[in-house]
């Protein structure tokens, strides 16, 4: 029989109830999220850390690389123009972005900016407006079926732990059921120890995991240039879905080798982290100098692009704004419905031009580990029996009537989604049988995770 703790069961039911009354945001197109599903960490057959999608699962050749733009700090009108539904849609249509990063100011910042009558100040001073800016971007991303990074854009997040926990609790409760959403809990730690970063991250991750198993990004010391610091000392994540960020600016940082003073290049440290089994995500990079200024060096940018593509690293370029900086993508005449590009913006738009023109919705009968084959079939002919498995991992799942049977080498997590892709509930520590009798008649998706194995299929309750 199933082994489900009372707490886990009540939490799952409460989550399901809250989602039942929450407003559902429906995509207006088929985009990368429909094709790849939830982003998830994993290792290839060589043990290298990569990012995968729940549609195909963790397997060689199924690595996912998504590319797009990072919004500038939510403190200036030259940036807030694009923190809008129209701004996101324009970048999707004109630049083919697959992901957007919302870099929310978290402290008491006041750069004397004003937007639509709002005096722009950081979250510590004005949480209401900062959260609304974030929600606008997140919902626009969901409508456009692209990924969105909810970024706690701070250099001192470890001094803002309680505020961050409250913020991410609300974000995870509200949007954690959408595969689009990624949580970046610490933008760029400055010169503090990895243990300080980890201690902070563990507390915030624990809060997020009460409501969502979506991908989480964690920064590392000295402005995210040391992802290898986490090797053998990873954060605590009950869902094992955390990646470590690498930030670079092409004129200032190197993609390979060592520096004359003996230090390893940023690219080398990223590669070391991946080879040690950690997944890496480039949530911010710039075409010019690390202070945002300078002119883009095309040769150095090309070398960095080759590095990113070689390692299939997802990225967001800094910045979608018309701030007076060399790394800003847009010229001053731009607005949320019309983009005029700087040298940097034209360069980045060129890189993004190889993103797909269109996407194909993940075939529900083929999600998870591997393809259907002998002994594997999708929904039963009459919706009363189905069998699917990831046998190479010892994971076998079957559905009889309204009872899900789980055979796995270790206790599994079972998640149920409606046909819009919204998670209804999740139950941990499942072994043997799990009754789905509380589900109304209809079609659903079930995802089962046990250890490194994941499988997902369509089912029908009649």
Automatic annotation (TrEMBL):
* Keyword vocabulary terms for this entry: Glycosidase, Hydrolase, Signal
User: Can you say what this protein is called?
Assistant: Putative CelA84
Q: Which branch of life, at top level?
A: Bacteria
Q: Which positions fall inside the Glycoside hydrolase family domain?
A: 60-322
Organism annotation? uncultured bacterium Ad_113_F04_contig2
Q: Which InterPro entries match?
A: GH, Glyco_hydro_5
Transport found in the keyword field: no
Q: Name the family the entry cites.
A: Belongs to the glycosyl hydrolase 5 (cellulase A) family.
What are the start and end residues of every segment in region (Disordered)? Answer: 358-382
Oxidoreductase keyword on record: no
Q: Name one GO molecular function term.
A: hydrolase activity, hydrolyzing O-glycosyl compounds
Bias (Gly residues) occurs at 367-381
**Which SUPFAM superfamilies did the record assign?**
(Trans)glycosidases
Any one Gene Ontology biological process term? polysaccharide catabolic process
**Signal peptide, first to last residue:** 1-22
């Amino acid at each position: 029989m199933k082994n489900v703790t009372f707490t886990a069961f009540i939490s799952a039911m409460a989550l399901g109830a809250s989602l039942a009354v929450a407003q559902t945001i429906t995509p207006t197109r088929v985009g990368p999220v429909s094709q790849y599903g939830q982003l998830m960490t994993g290792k290839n057959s060589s043990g290298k850390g990569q990012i995968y999608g729940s549609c195909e699962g963790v397997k060689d050749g199924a690595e996912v690389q998504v590319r797009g733009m990072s919004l500038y700090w939510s403190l200036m009108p030259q940036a807030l123009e694009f923190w809008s539904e129209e701004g996101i849609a324009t970048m999707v249509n004109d630049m083919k972005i697959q992901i957007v990063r919302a870099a929310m100011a978290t402290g008491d910042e006041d750069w004397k900016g004003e937007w639509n009558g709002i005096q722009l100040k950081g979250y510590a001073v004005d949480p209401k407006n900062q959260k609304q800016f974030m929600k606008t971007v997140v919902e626009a991303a969901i409508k456009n079926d692209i990924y969105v990074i909810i970024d706690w854009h701070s250099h001192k997040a470890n001094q803002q732990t309680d505020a961050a926990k409250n913020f991410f609790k609300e974000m995870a409760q509200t949007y954690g059921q959408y595969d689009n959403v990624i949580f970046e809990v610490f933008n760029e730690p400055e010169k503090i120890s990895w243990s300080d970063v980890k201690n902070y991250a563990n507390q915030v991750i624990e809060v997020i995991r009460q409501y969502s198993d979506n991908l989480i990004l964690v920064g590392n010391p000295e402005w995210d240039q040391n992802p290898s610091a986490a090797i053998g000392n990873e954060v605590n994540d009950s869902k094992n879905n955390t990646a470590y960020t690498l930030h670079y600016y092409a004129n200032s940082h190197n993609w390979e080798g060592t520096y004359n003073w003996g230090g390893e290049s940023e690219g080398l440290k990223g590669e070391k982290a991946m080879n040690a089994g950690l997944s890496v995500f480039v949530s911010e990079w710039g075409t010019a100098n690390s202070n945002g200024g300078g002119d883009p060096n095309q040769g150095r940018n090309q070398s960095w692009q080759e590095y990113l593509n070689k390692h299939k690293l997802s990225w967001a370029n800094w910045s979608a704004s018309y701030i007076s900086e060399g790394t800003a993508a847009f010229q001053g005449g731009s607005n949320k419905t019309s983009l005029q590009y700087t040298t940097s913006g034209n360069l980045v738009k060129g890189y993004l031009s190889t993103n797909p023109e269109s996407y194909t919705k993940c075939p529900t009968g083929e999600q998870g580990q591997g393809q259907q084959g002998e002994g594997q079939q999708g929904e039963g002919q009459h919706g009363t029996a189905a069998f699917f498995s990831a046998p190479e991992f010892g994971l076998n799942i079957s559905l009889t009537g309204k009872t899900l049977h789980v055979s796995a080498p270790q206790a599994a997590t079972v998640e149920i989604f409606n046909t819009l892709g919204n998670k209804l509930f999740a139950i941990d520590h499942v072994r043997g049988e799990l009754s789905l009798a509380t589900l109304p008649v209809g079609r659903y998706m079930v995802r089962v995770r046990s250890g490194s194995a994941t499988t997902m299929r369509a089912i029908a309750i009649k």
